[in-house]
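tool_call: predict_structure(chain=1)
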Amino acid sequence: MDIKKEVSSIKDYIIELRRHFHKNPEPSWKEFETSEFIKRELKKLKIPFEKIAKTGIIAKIGKGNRKIALRADIDALEIEELNDKEYKSEKKGLMHACGHDGHIAMLLGAGKILKKYESELKGEVRLIFQPAEELGDGAKEIIKDGGLEGVDNIFGIHLWSGLETGKISIIPGEIMASADLFSIKIKGKGGHGSMPHQGVDAAVIGASVVLNLQTIVSREISPLEPTVVSVGKIVSGTRYNIIAHEALIEGTVRSFNDEIRQTIPERIKRISENIAKAHRAEAELEYIWGPPPLKNDTESAERAKKCAKSLFGGDSINNPIGKIMAAEDFAYYLKEVSGIFVFVGSGNKEKGTDFPHHHPKFDIDEDALFVGASLHIKYALDFLNKN
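tool_result:
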């Protein structure tokens, strides 16, 4: 099979798909129209599928003992798009600002070609259309519902605006951090702003907690261990002249080291509770475990590199990204089976596609769709054909 020629022949089809999904974004666990559209497309391609994990879909091409899974995430973000393109989001306050529209289109395009050559496949290619990646729990539900049963290896792509179009980043080992969520509720005592001594000011206590949480990374963890404790939300008070009786603090924890990660909740609890106690208040911590660090399999990384070089030459392999503190629930799959998660560049300054992910002007260079779809096909074929 001449993969590049085959994908070139359906490039317009893939772009059309991507633009449809971009116009019609849906948030995590509410990807109902997206899911139905994918099902209709799979029916047209005569690829059998089944519903999984609420709005997810599993499709299968070929048969055999050897099984490779290719994954695309399908949810969008609660962002108002600021681009003025013909394919701009038609849903107010929702936008594909992370490239998932492209991920779906690339996988459907790859599926179309693989279906065409189904009789030549030496095993099964499983297409996973996964919901709720942005919440970090869609992959868990796919696994829980049996989506990985029998799978020997899994391959995933993320389009990346920080990487030049045509470049591919393939790195073995840990490349993305864990991502946990914490919430701290400070309970004080309200009162009149003119008589602060009669109350217990939750706003002041909350501010002190936020500042002291920074010492977890700066003073309790080795500087050689990348770790982040970030507070992204503080809510306290109802009016300028009322002493706040409560404060809510929400944040995230990122780490590559699972041993360190396990110690963070107790550190946050110790700091927040003791600061609150010192000010005659109470603090309650809620800690939600998110995706673990994403660790690529070395053998799978080498296979992916060979695939990329075969398709696009050695110059296509570019690893300027390195480790990033962002997270991906693809990490759950890699806890179950060997596999690889790669970044495909979609950044092009001249086309205005170099805005960061989750930005209201985020867009992708659609030339990257050709690269991603080709890589999906090549990796699947190489894995199934290996001795």
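agent: The chain has a mean pLDDT of 97. Proceeding to next step.
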